[in-house]
């Protein structure tokens, strides 16, 4: 079996989309399952994408006035119970630390938990940090002058999920969690919406992934939130992926952790809260937005390698000539802020390299051979369409720079067209079931009750992804015929 | 009590150095103890220093060919036992996860650990990641072509320390851990030494903290290492702080996790390993290298805020005039890559602000008042010496830029002079005890046995910090009179 063949052995999307995804994550060297159930190893190439995401998001958080900080990994069990909905939402999937020491096994060669080292109170590995953070904020907030408090944390969290999938749902994942405190309800609501917009901007302009902004229904809200704002994206198989959420928490955590402040009029009130987060799950969303049967398609704004150059040569002398020309191109590309690698390894054939960089989703591939040398040209292949063209080396830097932007726009446009094509308005429940089965996003009227929502979920596996912001036309619930304030977005979801 | 007075209420260094440190960490808003024993909250100002450290170190790691990745937080208990010294070193301070679910307490209002959700095998929160990483490397390494494997991870780790101190020794801390695999012993040894040099360069040129490079004795080695290379710094109280270590691990983990590869000759061998790390402990080292009774003294290369500008005004009109001039200065400073803030808050007096920015260690303070307006001048205060001068606004940007570099050099020089003044060579054990008590680093001959090392430690609390590289003059052990290959470095340590 040749390497090139092995690289191509992706399950095709049509055959089994889920298996295609799983294959691709592993074969493109993004991540793999670890020895610990549900926990993944994020490999260098996957982590490089996460680093790019982090850098961009972190800059956006700082531009909007936030500062990073770090809070403990472990949370006293009792903290979780302070907010009733919150404990209900997270208690069932908590990793619990009960002991703080191992000792030699008197009956074997290994180590055992030392029963003498039992903690007085068990500690939970954070599934999210509202409780430990608001317990800390109690000491940081006394007056309206201490507000707003705009903090973000980059961290690992753990939720003991039973069914896990690389990036999409893992027991441990990496994320950022913003936790802000405000003097007024209005200010906290503005903050929650502002961060939803930051996420939407990131999704659309960096991930090239169009999103629908809206608010969650009560049943789909974050445990402890008054309102959960979400951005929802359509994957290539028509399923929805919740790509980021921003919560208006009201005074729930202020009350649970007794965080009060003296306002301008001298009155005492509980602080108002928001929290918001995105995670390594975004890498899964990225993959399922653009990639194909040849491998990853990465948006240029997030690709760790934007351009690869492959020499095609028959002799060492020819390679030297190519390398000399390529060197100048590399210098020019780097000067334009483009990340580029030159793969002149003599252990792999050009065809193998082409397949590898297609698999890895490098947006632009340049190749230079003997004829190019003669003609002062270079072959340019764009990963999104797999189209090739031969262009002159003069001005290649500007050509590539424009092409990268064109690819970024094109894959966004393609994803948007796909979503628009697969988004339908329906008015009857039968039509709903039919269109859902075809893999669509469905805009339908709903009577606003958790009961109807639950019934639809049980009967069709579709959930209300959000109540979109951009629609306010009333109608009648497709299931019960009762009045509906506006259409809501239904889909099956990751 | 005025705020300005409160800010000044640091314990003085002479009175109680340890309390001064503790006070300063809290009052300068770097970190505080959390509700979880031994775990700290790193506050935004402290975290901003860590972010600067991370960015610089990460660039250095990448320049030396390393890639970041991420491995699971949890390690199966049995992995720890695979390497005998390693388990011996870490088993006694492990946080152990035994359950994965909580449930409602049938007899109370809170939640309890669900006894039905007990893990088959307990999981340890990583105290360091050699075991989980080498278990992963087994699948990544087959041939010499897969080597070297140069990986780094930024992560949190946990060691259940009994006596903790903010930054210096905490149950949870943030760090980076490099884990590399190589085809030959020589290459791994070169890597371990290379990373020691990267750390030394960072310590001296960014932290302005002179370090002594050397190798640890057997008793002080990392659990599982063949050799531990270290950089040791002297704190202001004469105690040593181990600021970074780089380990040559031989084939210990290759063997423990059966990581073999086919070499160029077609023979199978175990992979050779290194690991190396620095942690948030460096922030403690930074504080105890330069700060004083007025607060932090931060090296300009790591200060989150390099310059603060304070207006001194009698009227809104005067403030407007000052702000107009300051705006131009800010633009100029920012264009030079200098981070600057303008504190024109009307809720605090200039004196309060001066004290606050001294406490926070901002390297340069500029102040502009009515007379400065008339004369086109500005007052410049440097934090390291507290010296003030009034200079003309023309060319202030270049002046400040040079001053920042001068401060960086000056605090390094001062720390180096301090260390040199307090480093002595002694030849008798009596002299050793006397000089140690005075707070010195001591270079003395030692017979090379763990017994003598242990005796000295028990009798004086001094440990061998390292066997320095730059000395090879033989002599006789100060305790036993037996032959000694070279002087080694003794000190009491953090």
Automatic annotation (TrEMBL), chains A, B:
Keyword Zinc among UniProt keywords: no
Name assigned to this protein: Proline--tRNA ligase
Keyword Aminoacyl-tRNA synthetase annotated: yes
Domain Aminoacyl-transfer RNA synthetases class-II family profile, first and last residues per copy: 32-299
Family: Belongs to the class-II aminoacyl-tRNA synthetase family. ProS type 3 subfamily.
GO MF annotation list: ATP binding; proline-tRNA ligase activity
PROSITE patterns registered for this protein in UniProt: AA_TRNA_LIGASE_II (PS50862)
E.C. code: 6.1.1.15
Major subcellular site: cytoplasm
Organism: Tannerella forsythia (strain ATCC 43037 / JCM 10827 / CCUG 21028 A / KCTC 5666 / FDC 338)
Domain comment (free text): Consists of three domains: the N-terminal catalytic domain, the anticodon-binding domain and the C-terminal extension.
Gene: proS
């Amino acid at each position: 079996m040749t390497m090139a063949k092995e690289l191509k052995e992706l399950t095709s999307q049509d055959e089994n989309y889920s298996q295609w995804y799983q294959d691709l994550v592993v074969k493109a060297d993004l991540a793999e399952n670890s020895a610990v159930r549900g926990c993944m190893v994020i490999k260098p190439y996957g982590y490089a994408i996460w680093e790019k995401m982090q850098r961009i998001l972190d800059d956006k958080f700082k531009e909007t006035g936030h500062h990073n900080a770090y809070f403990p990994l472990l949370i006293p069990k009792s903290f979780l119970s302070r907010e009733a909905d919150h404990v209900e939402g997270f208690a069932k999937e908590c990793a619990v630390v009960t002991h703080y020491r191992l000792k030699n096994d008197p009956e074997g060669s290994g180590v055992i938990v030392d029963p003498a080292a039992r903690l007085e109170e068990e500690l939970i590995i954070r599934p999210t940090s509202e409780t430990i953070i608001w317990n800390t904020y109690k000491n940081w907030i006394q007056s309206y002058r201490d507000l707003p408090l705009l903090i973000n944390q980059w961290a690992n969290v753990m939720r003991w999920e039973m069914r896990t999938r690389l990036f999409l749902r893992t027991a441990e994942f990496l994320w950022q969690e913003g936790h802000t405190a405000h003097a007024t309800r209005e200010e906290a609501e503005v903050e929650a919406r502002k961060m939803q917009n930051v996420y939407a901007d990131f999704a659309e302009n960096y991930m090239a992934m169009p999103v629908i902004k809206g608010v969650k229904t009560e049943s789909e809200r974050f445990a402890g939130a008054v309102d959960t704002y979400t951005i929802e994206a359509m994957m290539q198989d028509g399923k929805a992926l919740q790509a980021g959420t921003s919560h208006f928490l009201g005074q729930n955590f202020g009350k649970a952790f007794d965080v009060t402040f003296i306002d301008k009029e001298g009155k005492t009130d509980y602080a108002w809260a928001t929290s918001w987060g995105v995670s390594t799950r975004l890498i899964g969303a990225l993959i399922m937005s653009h990639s194909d049967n040849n491998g990853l398609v990465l948006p240029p704004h997030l690709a760790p390698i934007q351009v690869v150059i492959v020499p095609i040569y028959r002799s060492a002398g020819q390679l030297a000539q190519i390398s000399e020309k390529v060197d100048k191109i590399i210098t020019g590309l780097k000067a334009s802020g483009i990340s580029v690698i030159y793969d002149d390894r003599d252990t792999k054939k050009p065809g193998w390299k082409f397949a590898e960089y297609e698999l890895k989703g490098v947006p632009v591939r340049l190749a230079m051979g003997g004829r190019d040398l003669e003609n002062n040209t270079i072959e340019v292949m764009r990963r999104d369409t797999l189209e090739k063209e031969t262009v002159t080396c003069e001005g290649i830097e500007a050509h590539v720079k424009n092409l990268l932007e064109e690819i970024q726009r094109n894959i966004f446009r393609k994803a948007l067209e796909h979503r628009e094509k697969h988004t339908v308005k329906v008015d009857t429940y039968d039509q709903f079931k039919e269109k859902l089965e075809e893999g669509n996003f469905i805009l339908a009227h709903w009577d606003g009750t958790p009961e109807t929502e639950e019934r639809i979920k049980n009967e069709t596996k579709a959930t209300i992804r959000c109540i979109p912001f951009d629609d306010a036309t009333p109608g009648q619930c497709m299931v019960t015929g009762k009045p509906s304030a506006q259409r809501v977005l239904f889909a099956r979801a990751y």
